[in-house]
UniProtKB/TrEMBL annotation, chain A:
Keyword Ligase attached: yes
Native species: Anaeromyxobacter diazotrophicus
InterPro entries, alphabetized: Asn/Gln-tRNA_amidoTrfase_suB/E, Asn/Gln-tRNA_Trfase_suB/E_cat, Asn/Gln_amidotransferase, Asn/Gln_tRNA_amidoTrase-B-like, GatB, GatB_C_1, GatB_Yqey_C_2, Gln-tRNA_amidoTrfase_suB_CS
Class of the enzyme per the UniProt entry, highest EC level: ligase
Subunit structure: Heterotrimer of A, B and C subunits.
UniProt keywords, alphabetically: ATP-binding, Ligase, Nucleotide-binding, Protein biosynthesis, Transferase
Family: Belongs to the GatB/GatE family. GatB subfamily.
HAMAP family per the UniProt record, alphabetical: GatB (MF_00121)
Protein name (record): Aspartyl/glutamyl-tRNA(Asn/Gln) amidotransferase subunit B
Molecular functions (GO terms): ATP binding; glutaminyl-tRNA synthase (glutamine-hydrolyzing) activity; transferase activity
GO BP terms: glutaminyl-tRNAGln biosynthesis via transamidation; translation
Catalytic reaction annotation: L-glutamyl-tRNA(Gln) + L-glutamine + ATP + H2O = L-glutaminyl-tRNA(Gln) + L-glutamate + ADP + phosphate + H(+); L-aspartyl-tRNA(Asn) + L-glutamine + ATP + H2O = L-asparaginyl-tRNA(Asn) + L-glutamate + ADP + phosphate + 2 H(+)
From TrEMBL, chain B:
GO CC annotations, alphabetized: glutamyl-tRNA(Gln) amidotransferase complex
EC number in record: 6.3.5.7
GO molecular function: ATP binding; glutaminyl-tRNA synthase (glutamine-hydrolyzing) activity; transferase activity
Subunit structure as annotated in this protein's UniProt entry: Heterotrimer of A, B and C subunits.
Record-linked NCBIfam families: gatA (TIGR00132)
Protein name: Glutamyl-tRNA(Gln) amidotransferase subunit A
Domain Amidase: 28-472
Length: 484, 493
């Protein structure tokens, strides 16, 4: 495969929905779903005579993102019309920003193979989303248009062609997504389309300085699709070049069913968007006081938080990164640690739980931390039960799962489900006696010097006690009974 | 009140005083206007829709308020009409285009809301050039409108119905919109007063957009005072139009009668030189001389970039129009044709059947001007002309309070005369587009009848930004001195 002789160069364009309650130019709800066209009004339907009234929260959120990403926030930016015909675009143009966007420059930090670097950004601009065409619902075969999304605020974050592998591209998206979620400006939801990505992909021979011709790939709504699409596209472009051909600049659509990209628009059909300044909106002018106020209220970002966890709590880089990838998870961890009583020992235990069983349960259930029945206080209480020997490891896992799924107080769950550890010597002795009585041969060999069999006896006793025996007590009782 | 004819001759302010004094009821005024429309509009063609029922209900409500001593203000109970470019909830709004067939707006334009909140009685929707594109009202897809002074002539455009209805005594005040002269030119042709306010003085919310950076709604009245009374109600910030100004609205009545003494009137001499028909030039010069007699000072001013105005206007306005008219695609409202022909078939068939020749011409001009590779040479250059024009006016207003000149090069032309020559039609706007490009207020006030043709001539007054008060004061000084025009002859013959 000649692919190894080539290097991929990528730039990503991320469309992130800004999490305002209402749309960018009208008062309609931005809630996902709903009956088609339930969240519409004359403005977002593009009826004659309507004018856009700017939602200031959108500007605030875009500035927040820009500041967090180290961009230059422009004190004056200009709205522009991007003109094209499509049924889901009610006005026949999209209000966006073109020549003078709200943010320029900046970067997104990534770590690949242990190496940290900052991927350069070109710009961030604000724009309105379009609606969607709905096919196959009407009895007569006609299509419909749902404009619930029309006018939902987006920011488009455009990177430089500064990504040189699929791993880098993936890390870039994860880092950017985490930052936006931390800022509270985006919910990071790829499936519902509130975090979408287009990729500009080109290849060049290793060592070449000039960029190759790029193709824009659309419809990458999962990390997996991004990987598949880019892998396919790199192979395709390399084959074209190796075959003596030239890569044609075009927009290609990723088809997840076939794992392929294919050309979306032919050249004759290429769009001329006829951008011009939006006459219905004055230039957007920001004063320093506003920008400084937004800067003052920026939260701690994932990398700063992970560094703090390593420095102050002695957590490993791996644990710290897992805990901080999502702001809500990190906040859950902080609250659990506060409830437990801060300290490096507690931090390590809680990190193991949060990154282990809690993360597994969250993945399985698909629930966000806000929807968990497990609260930070309950997790702290459960770990304290383990510390106190009230419940053992297997019992604690069961208790956690029960609390996560059904709620309840950990101590009560342990009790009600009979998960408590048995430390009572009498009970352990009874179980040990039963095991030893039926294992005469093994006892003989143990006493003959095969002390490795202790593990066998412990296992049998635990089994006899349905896993609830306190391991320390079980060991002590067995040692005494088997004797020297 | 002795008779309907006398009632209909009242100005808006005259009717308002009669309503306040209880000498006449809103019902009587409304019935008189409806009867007049019924009797004359077959010949004039000013109305595209008459909303008699709504008008009668609102008149009754106004009379009830008057009976309680709770009149809302000068417009309460006054029958008015608006250009059919303003959206009216529950009443079809056509922009005089086939493409809006069947479109009944779910909301009222901001200015319609304001008029009705002030108690005004809306009689109906007035004729215009399709999408306000034209200078003769002949581009109406519904029917042409006729000039009450001579039914064979144009009332001007695009707000032809708004001016003709006033001249025909069908309403006591009207609203129009002015993108390049669409209020002032018909006002001049029909012998009424028309005011294009400063860009941003009046909300554009709910006005079918033609060229967004130039469009401005404004009043037309039979007297200067009528225009002032209407502007008083419609002016002011509207949070739904971010281009509307937050600047407080002046009291337009306060200085109205202060006369011309102490005013400095700037005269761009080039505007009276070549290209202006002799009779029009004579009346304009007489008006200037009258100002001097009334104590105003005349100074010459230079507006050297005026000559680029038409070219810049006919790039910017079509460019914005090409974008504003993209929403008429058959998908959500209005006309839909060729639905079986797939998406592109539907777009093509709908727009081919729905738009008349002039919107099509402008959509093509504008699309071209905005296209990749042409944008800098056309649209951007035209924007630079705007800046130069604005500077011309700034310099001129260092030396004068108002600028005075002709509204149009000639009086109302005959219907059909310029239909085949779009460029000649565009040149009608030569003196008016500069106001829109520079975002300034402009007013047209009658300055007598053409010496031979016996048709009205308009004097154009242009003011500093947001200084409508001075324009109205200067116009009133001329009006008071000249007295009213005679009744238009066309309808009485
Ligand atoms: Zn809406």
């Amino acid at each position: 495969m000649p692919v190894a002789d080539f290097e991929v160069v990528m730039g990503l364009e991320v469309h992130a929905q800004l999490l305002t309650r209402t749309k960018i130019f009208c008062g309609c709800s931005t809630a996902f779903g709903g009956e088609p066209n339930a969240h519409t009004c004359p403005v977002c339907l593009g009826l004659p005579g309507v004018l856009p009234a700017l939602n200031q929260r959108v500007v605030e959120f875009a500035v927040r993102a820009g500041l967090a990403l180290g961009c230059e926030v422009k004190r004056k930016s200009v709205w522009a019309r991007k003109n094209y015909f499509y049924p889901d675009l009610p006005k026949g143009y999209q209000i966006s920003q073109y020549e003078l966007p709200i943010c320029e420059g900046g970067g997104v930090p990534i770590t690949v193979d242990g190496k940290e670097r900052v991927v350069q950004l070109v710009r961030i601009h604000m724009e309105e989303d379009a609606g969607k065409n709905v096919h196959g619902v009407a009895a007569d075969g006609s299509s419909g248009v749902d404009l619930n999304r029309a006018g939902v605020p987006l920011c488009e974050i455009v990177s430089a062609p500064d990504l040189f592998s699929i791993d880098e591209a993936t890390e870039y998206l994860k880092s950017l997504r985490a930052i936006l979620m931390y800022l509270g400006v985006n919910d990071g939801n790829l499936e519902e389309g509130s975090f979408r990505c287009d990729a500009n992909v080109s290849v060049r021979r290793r060592g070449a300085a000039a960029l190759g011709q790029r193709c824009e790939i659309k419809n990458l709504n999962s990390f997996r699709f991004l990987r598949q699409a880019v892998e396919y596209e790199v192979r395709r472009q390399v084959e074209v070049l190796e075959g003596g051909g030239r890569v044609v600049q075009e927009t290609r659509l990723f088809d997840p069913a076939r794992g392929e990209t294919r050309a979306m628009r032919s050249k004759e059909d290429a769009h001329d968007y006829r951008y011009f300044p939006e006459p219905d909106l004055p230039p957007l002018v920001l004063d320093d006081a506003f920008v400084e106020e937004v800067r003052r209220t920026l939260p701690e970002l994932p990398r700063a938080r992970a560094a703090r966890y390593q420095r102050d709590l002695g957590l490993s880089a791996y644990d710290a990164q897992l805990l901080t990838a999502e702001r809500a998870v990190a906040e859950f961890f902080d609250a659990a640690l506060a409830a437990y009583g801060a300290g490096a020992e507690g931090a390590k235990k809680l990190a193991n739980w949060v990154n282990g069983d809690v993360a597994r349960l969250a993945n399985e259930s698909g629930l966000a931390p806000a929807a968990w029945k497990l609260t930070p206080e309950k997790l702290a209480a459960l770990v304290k039960l383990v510390d106190a020997g009230t419940v053992g490891g297997p019992g604690a896992k069961q208790a956690l799962e029960a609390v996560f799924r059904e709620g309840g107080d950990p101590a009560e769950v342990v009790k009600a489900r009979g998960l408590a550890q048995v430390s009572d010597e009498g009970a352990v002795e009874a179980a040990a006696d039963a095991v030893l009585a039926r294992s005469a041969a093994e006892v003989e060999r143990y006493r003959g010097g095969n002390t490795k069999l202790m593990g066998f006896f412990v296992g049998q006793v635990m089994k006899e006690m349905k896993g609830k025996g306190n391991p320390a007590v079980v060991n002590a009782v067995l040692k005494r009974k088997l004797g020297p | 009140m002795s008779g309907a004819g006398e009632l209909l001759d009242l100005s808006l302010t005259g009717l308002s005083a009669a309503l306040a004094a209880g000498r006449v009821s809103a019902r009587e005024a409304t019935e008189a206007a409806l009867a007049r429309i019924e009797a004359t509009d077959g010949r004039v063609g000013a109305f595209l829709a008459v909303t008699a029922e709504r008008a009668r209900e609102r008149a009754a409500a106004a009379d009830a308020r008057a009976a309680r001593g709770a009149r809302l203000g000068p417009l309460d109970g006054v029958p008015l009409a608006v250009k059919d470019l303003f959206l009216t909830r529950g009443v079809a709004t056509t922009a005089a285009s086939r493409i809006l067939a069947g479109f009944v707006p779910p909301y009222d334009a901001a200015v319609v809301e304001r008029l009705e909140a002030a108690g005004a009685v809306l009689l109906g929707k007035l004729n215009l050039d399709e999408f306000a594109m034209g200078s003769s009202n002949e581009n109406s897809a519904v029917k042409p409108c006729h000039n009450p002074w001579d039914l064979a002539r144009t009332p001007g455009g695009s707000s032809g119905g708004s001016a003709a209805a006033l001249a025909a005594r069908q309403a006591f005040g009207t609203l129009g919109t002015d993108t390049g002269g669409s209020i002032r030119e018909p006002a001049a042709f029909c012998g009424v007063v028309g005011l294009k306010p400063t860009y941003g003085r009046v909300s554009r919310y709910g006005v079918v957009a033609f060229a967004s950076s130039l469009d401005q709604p404004g009043p037309l009245g039979r007297t200067v005072g009528d225009a002032a009374a209407l502007l008083q109600v419609i002016a002011g910030r509207d949070a739904r139009d971010l281009t509307s100004s937050t600047r407080p609205v002046d009291d337009y009545g306060a200085a109205l009668e202060e006369g011309a003494r102490g005013l400095t009137v700037g005269v761009p001499r080039a505007w009276l030189a070549e290209g202006v028909e002799a009779g029009v030039a004579r009346r304009v010069k007489e008006a200037l001389a009258l100002y001097e007699r009334l104590g105003a000072k005349l100074v010459d001013v230079e507006l050297p970039h005026t000559k680029y105005g038409i070219a810049a206007y006919y790039l910017i306005a079509p460019a914005e129009a090409s974008s504003n008219l993209a929403r008429y695609d058959g998908v959500r409202f209005g006309l839909r044709e060729g639905g079986a022909g797939g998406l592109k078939g539907m777009y093509g068939a709908t727009r081919a059947a729905g738009f008349g020749a002039e919107p099509k011409r402008r959509i093509m001009l504008g699309t071209y001007a905005l296209s990749a590779g042409y944008y800098d040479a056309y649209y951007l250059r035209a924007q630079k002309v705007r800046t130069l024009l604005r500077r011309d006016f700034e310099r001129a207003f260092e030396r004068c309070d108002v600028i005075a000149g002709p509204v149009t090069p000639a009086v109302a032309f005959r219907l059909g005369e310029k239909v085949a020559d779009p460029l000649a039609m565009y040149l009608e706007d030569v003196f008016t587009v500069t106001c829109n490009l520079a975002a300034l207020p402009g007013l047209s006030v009658p300055c007598g009848l053409h010496p031979e043709q016996q048709l009205p001539v308009g004097l154009q007054l242009i003011g500093r930004p947001f200084d409508e008060a001075t324009l109205l004061r200067a116009a009133r000084a001329l009006e008071r001195e000249q007295g009213p025009l005679p009744r238009p002859a066309g309808l009485e013959a």
